[in-house]
Structure formats: structure tokens, C-alpha cells
Design a protein that fits this description.
By secondary structure, this protein is mostly helical. The protein is 75% helix and 2% strand. It contains 21 helices and 4 strands.
């Protein structure tokens, strides 16, 4: 590993480009089109009754896990393809990474009302709500996984790239044998936090109201939200207990075995002092049926896939910088032209819609942005202060990880929105109660992106480098400066970018809360969006959403993405 001082010589990055403006115009146009469709939605939509009986919880849990699984499958497919193309194709990277930056900054909860109403024009309310729920959970899972895939491929050590070139691996074999294995640890850890993010938004995804239209669907999220609205603390605790049971089951049967399996891909020249263990992984590795399935089904399938996707005429996988995208065909240019015309018309009409807003509305948006920005900064600062040392401690001590990871998984996956009513009751009557509670909810919803990325980075530190620092008798400060922080730097930046986007999204549910039939709100852009949604004020909703997106993109572009470029250039294992 290159031994460097931990300095912040930030590369220059344009804060806002023409492409960013085009993306924002596209978002504005699409939101306007969805708004026009929303006007034709049924005036009254009534969702099914959500039972608070304990006997309903197993079925509700099964429904919620099904939605989470569907969203995760889409997220994994999207992350692998999008992250790979962005990392491998230099021309595509110039478009895809700014687009990803904007997408992860978009507050999906502000788009959800018009998307639901637009879908209800063509589909039944129940199907529209199911699709919207999967999309909302997808947006809470996909972005951090995509950033992780992109970051991993961009920071593959040079000697591994050279080995792939020497063995003349085709693009497919390079992807399967080098890039996916190198990214595996980061993907698994970010998958865990993605599920945690999905649970966080589950309550909003399964129970959403727009005026007199009720888009609730049965599930754990709607059960918890119904219990919170009724002020039934017993039902809330029962729902949380069921959720914890589901989380522990998934952790033991899926994530722990995957983490043990992924240890084979760590960059080690000497054996580690400890390795993670999983009783279910051990059980599977000794199973005769699993062995038979691998020998008769899985490996023959992989071999056929390798033959099908690898041809003698395939070029050897080129270096990252030399791969370029093909020029657009005539048909593609025509389609893009039609799309540009439609978006331009939608953007023009969206601008007309914004002209109906008064000075007071714009002042509310500006004041809300300032207040929410301070809360986001406070939440990120608190998260950074504790997640970095704790993440290193867990990631470098497998025995300690075996004890603490299940606790971290449960804490990360229990949606803060489910416990928020209890917290709100204790803080509401204190000075600045909801302001403090809003920061706490943002923190509970976003700190896990940082923690799990730090754990992923710490777990990839080769044992020989740790042994070297011990032999050199480096002090703790020197060890952090020369080993931990340089190796963790790309993972911290990845976690901070996604945590920041998550904090802005969480403001919508943190700054306006309904409990016991009463609505409590504080100053913030999230509260503005929530109130505009409840009142059907689409002009204010559009203005607040675009203002939040622009602010989040500027912060990422002026600060976080510059650190991302620094991580690519200087801080990786080589």
C-alpha cells in the first residue's frame, strides 16, 4: 500500500454542469407530467383495513419481506450493471456518475404522491400502491450499493489488473473472476445497510395518504404506522418485536453465511488471526444436497455461461481509461430527440406552474433549506465521530464482530420511524423538542450507511499490513494516519455521500410527524414537502423538491465528490 500523509489536496470538480441542468430539467418535466396525470386520478381511494391483532403479524411480515426481496433483486441488478458501466466506460462515466449523484439526492417521498396518483389513472389503487412501494424501497437500497460497486472497481490494485491482462481474460471473465470478487465484501455490507434503509422507509411505503386518497397496503410497515396513529404503544412494541425476529432470522440465514463466504476474496498474503464463522454456512458446506446441487447444476451452468459469453474473437479486457462507448445510431438519436422535446415541454409547463407561488412560499423554501441543512450537518458529524472508531474495532476483530454484528444489524434494521412516536412523547414538551427529535431521527436513519461502509473497509485491510504496523511499533496515532485512514478513506466517502442523501430524504418524515391523530412539525424543507403533499399544493411541492435536489447536488459536487476523486487517485491498496 502506498504510504502517504493524510492530506486534502482536493482535485477541482465543476460544482454544476450543463448536464446537471439537463437532468434537473428532466426531473421537473417528468414531475409535471405526473402531476397532470394526478389531476385525473380517482377523487376518493380507500385502502384495506389494517388489523392490529397479533395473529395478523406473520402474514404481514411475509408480505413486507416479499416487497423488500423484490426491491433488493432490482437494486442488485441495477448496482452491478450501472456501477460496472460507470467504472469501465470513461465516456459513460461522465454522464452516469452525475446522474447517480442527482438520483440519490432526489427526495423520493416528495415524488411518491404524484407517482401514486399517476399510476392510479391506469392501474387499480392496490397495484399502484404495490409498485410504488417496491420503487420507494428500491431507491433506499440501490444508490449506496451502486456507489460501492463503482468505488471497488475503480480502486482495484494495479497488479491485479495486470494479472488479468497477462491471463488475457475476456471482459466477462474479468467481471466474474476479478471485479465482482473484489467488490463482494463491499456489496454484502452495503446490502445489509440497504435492507436497513428499506425497513426505514417501509412505513411510508406501505401506508401513504394524499388528501382523501388512502394508498395503504397490508404489511409490517402499515401495521406499525396504524398502531402509531392510534397511539397504541403495545401494538407498536409487538410490531417492533416481530420485525426484530425477522431481522435476526435474515441475518443468521443470509448475511452471516455470505460474509463468511466473502472472506475468500480478501487480499491476504498471510492467514488472518481469526475468521468469521456462521453455523448456517457450516451446515450448508457439509450438506450432501448442497454439494450435489453445486456439482450437477450450478457449476455446469457457470461453465456454459462462460462459454456462451466468452468468444475467441473477444478482445482482452482493456484498461479503464481506454474503453469508450459506441456512437448513437440514427434510431437512438430519433428517440432521444423525441424524449428531449417531451421533457422540454414538461419543463416549460413546470416553470409556468412555479410562477403561481408567492414570495412567502419561496421564503418558506429558503428558510426550510437552511434549517434542514444544519440538521443534516449535525447528524453527519455525530455519525462520523462514532462510526469510524467503532467500525474499525468491529472490522478488525472478528471475535468482537461475531458478538456485535447481530446487535448492529438489529439496531440498523429496526425502522426509526417505528420507535419515533415513543421518542417524540419524551421530547415533545422539552425546549426545542421536535428539532432535537428530527436530528435524532435523521441520525438513526443514516448513520448505518457510514458504519457498515467503515466495517467493510476495515475488514479488507490485509493481515500482513496490520502485522507490519505492530512490528514497527507504531503508535495508535501513527497507525491511524498511515494505515487505517488511507485504507478507509474511499469507504468513508462512499458512506458519507449516501448517508447525506439519506438524511435529506429522512427530513420529510422527521420534520412533520403524525401521532395520535395530531400533526407536529418544525421548520425545515422536509416539513414544507410534507405539508405541500398533505394540502395537494403541487407547485410548492415541485419548488421544494427541486430546491432540495439542487442543494444536495451542490454539496456533493463541491465537497464529497472531490474527496471521491482524491480517494481514487491516492488512497487505495496498490
Amino acid at each position: 500500500m502506498r504510504r502517504t500523509r493524510f492530506t486534502l489536496a482536493l482535485p477541482t470538480t465543476p460544482p454544476f454542469t450543463v448536464g446537471d441542468g439537463a437532468i434537473l430539467f428532466t426531473l421537473a418535466g417528468l414531475m409535471y407530467l405526473a402531476t397532470r396525470l394526478a389531476f385525473h386520478a380517482p377523487t376518493v381511494i380507500t385502502g384495506p383495513t389494517i388489523s392490529l391483532e397479533p395473529s395478523a403479524l406473520p402474514w404481514y411480515a411475509l408480505l413486507s419481506v416479499g416487497r423488500m426481496s423484490a426491491a433488493y433483486a432490482l437494486s442488485l441488478l441495477f448496482s452491478l450493471s450501472y456501477g460496472y458501466i460507470a467504472a469501465r466506460r470513461h465516456n459513460a462515466e461522465k454522464v452516469l456518475m452525475p446522474l447517480l449523484d442527482v438520483l440519490q439526492s432526489v427526495p423520493i417521498l416528495s415524488f411518491l404522491p404524484v407517482v401514486l396518483l399517476g399510476l392510479s389513472v391506469f392501474l387499480s389503487a392496490n397495484i399502484a400502491a404495490e409498485l410504488a412501494a417496491v420503487v420507494l424501497i428500491f431507491t433506499s437500497q440501490a444508490w449506496n450499493m451502486t456507489f460501492s460497486v463503482y468505488q471497488s472497481i475503480k480502486t482495484i490494485p494495479g497488479e491485479l489488473r495486470e494479472a488479468a491482462a497477462i491471463f488475457r481474460l475476456s471482459p466477462w471473465l474479468r467481471f466474474r473472476l476479478l471485479e465482482v470478487p473484489f467488490a463482494a465484501t463491499g456489496i454484502i455490507w452495503n446490502s445489509m445497510v440497504s435492507w436497513a434503509g428499506g425497513w426505514f422507509f417501509l412505513m411510508a411505503a406501505e401506508m401513504f395518504t394524499v388528501g382523501s386518497r388512502d394508498f395503504r397496503i397490508p404489511g409490517l410497515g402499515s401495521y406499525l404506522q396504524t398502531a402509531a396513529n392510534a397511539g397504541d404503544i403495545h401494538a407498536v412494541l409487538l410490531g417492533v418485536a416481530t420485525l426484530i425476529l425477522v431481522i435476526v432470522t435474515i441475518d443468521q440465514l443470509l448475511w452471516r453465511p455470505l460474509l463468511v463466504w466473502a472472506q475468500r476474496f480478501n487480499l491476504e498474503t498471510v492467514g488472518g488471526s481469526h475468521t468469521s464463522v456462521s453455523w448456517f454456512h457450516t451446515l450448508l458446506s457439509r450438506s450432501w444436497l448442497v454439494k450435489l446441487w453445486l456439482e450437477r447444476v450450478w457449476w455446469p451452468f457457470i461453465e456454459r455461461l462462460d462459454i456462451r459469453l466468452t468468444h475467441p474473437t473477444d478482445p482482452v479486457a482493456a484498461p479503464l481509461e481506454s474503453v469508450s462507448s459506441n456512437k448513437l445510431s440514427g434510431r437512438s438519436r430519433l428517440l432521444w430527440g423525441v424524449f428531449a422535446v417531451v421533457v422540454s415541454w414538461g419543463s416549460y409547463r413546470a416553470a409556468e406552474l412555479l410562477t403561481v407561488l408567492e414570495i412567502g412560499d419561496w421564503l418558506a423554501v429558503a428558510t426550510g433549506l437552511g434549517a434542514t441543512f444544519l440538521r443534516v450537518c449535525a447528524a453527519l458529524l455525530i455519525a462520523l465521530l462514532w462510526t469510524i472508531p467503532v467500525g474499525v474495532m468491529i472490522g478488525t476483530r472478528p471475535k468482537l464482530a461475531a458478538m456485535l454484528l447481530p446487535i448492529a444489524q438489529i439496531a440498523a434494521s429496526v425502522p426509526a420511524t417505528a420507535l419515533f412516536p415513543i421518542v417524540l412523547l419524551s421530547l415533545l414538551h422539552l425546549p426545542g423538542g421536535l428539532d432535537v427529535a428530527a436530528v435524532l431521527l435523521m441520525l438513526l436513519g443514516t448513520q448505518w450507511y457510514l458504519l457498515f461502509n467503515v466495517i467493510a473497509g476495515a475488514s479488507t485491510i490485509p493481515q500482513d499490513l496490520r502485522d507490519t504496523t505492530a512490528l514497527l511499533r507504531l503508535s495508535n496515532i501513527q497507525r491511524w494516519r498511515t494505515l487505517y485512514l488511507p485504507v478507509l478513506f474511499p469507504y468513508i466517502v462512499t458512506g458519507a455521500i449516501t448517508a447525506g442523501g439519506g438524511a435529506w430524504n429522512a427530513s420529510i418524515v422527521a420534520e412533520a410527524v403524525v401521532f395520535g391523530g395530531e400533526t407536529h412539525h418544525t421548520t425545515g424543507i422536509g416539513a414544507v414537502i410534507a405539508q405541500a403533499t398533505a394540502n395537494g399544493n403541487y407547485a410548492l411541492l415541485l419548488a421544494a423538491t427541486l430546491a432540495m435536489v439542487v442543494t444536495a447536488v451542490l454539496i456533493n459536487r463541491l465537497f464529497w465528490l472531490r474527496l471521491y476523486r482524491l480517494a481514487e487517485d491516492r488512497y487505495h491498496l496498490d
